[in-house]
């Protein structure tokens, strides 16, 4: 039986920073959607930095 925990490993944290869309996909979207995606990616990066700092302690 395998046990799991809720630890955020460096690999998991790094995977969070990968964009959900490739540049070609974003380029085909409207300006409004490009702005929404850019904002969300910025917010996610900030959140992930906070998570990484918390797990480092």
Structure description:
- With 57 residues, the protein is mainly α.
- Helices cover 65% and strands 0% of the residues.
- The protein contains three helices and no strands.
- The protein is elongated and about 45 Å long.
- The mean pLDDT is 85.
N-to-C SSE series? HHH
In one word, what is the shape? elongated
In whole angstroms, the N-to-C terminal distance is: 29 Å
Please work out how many helical segments DSSP would assign.
3
- How large a portion of the residues is in β-strands, by DSSP E? under 5%
The helix content, as a percent range, equals: 55-70%
User: Tally of extended strands?
Assistant: 0
Mean pLDDT over the residues: 85
Identify low-pLDDT runs.
none
How would you sum up the major sheet?
none
Provide the gyration radius in Å: 15 Å
Main structural class: mainly alpha
Can you give me a brief rundown of this structure?
With 57 residues, the protein is mostly helical.
Blueprint (SSEs and pairs):
Layout: H1 10-16, H2 23-27, H3 31-55
What are the salient characteristics of this protein?
0% strand; mainly alpha; 57 residues; 65% helix
């Amino acid at each position: 039986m395998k046990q799991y925990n809720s630890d955020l490993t460096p690999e998991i944290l790094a995977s969070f920073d990968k964009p959900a869309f490739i540049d070609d996909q974003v380029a085909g979207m409207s300006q409004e959607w490009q702005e929404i995606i850019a904002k969300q990616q910025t917010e996610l990066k900030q959140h992930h930095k906070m998570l990484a700092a918390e797990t480092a302690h």
